[in-house]
Amino acid sequence: MMTRRAFSAAAAVAAACVAAPALRAQGRLEKTKLAIAVGGKAAFYYLPLTISEQLGYFKAEGLDVEISDFAGGAKSLQALMGGSADVVAGAYEHTINMQSKNQSIQSIVLMGRAPQIAVGVSTKTMPGFKTMAELRGKKVGVSAPGSSTNMVANLVLSRAGIKASEVSIVGVGTAAGALTALRSGQVDVMSNTDPVMTMLEQKGDVKIISDTRTLKGTQEVFGGPMPAACFYTHADFVKSHPNTCQALANAIVHGLKWLQTAGPSDIIKTVPESYLLGDRALYLASFNKVREAIGVDGMLPDDGAKTALRALASFEPSIKPEKIDLTRTYTNDFARRAKDKYKA
Question: Residue 189 sits in which domain range?
Answer without folding.
Answer: 117-211
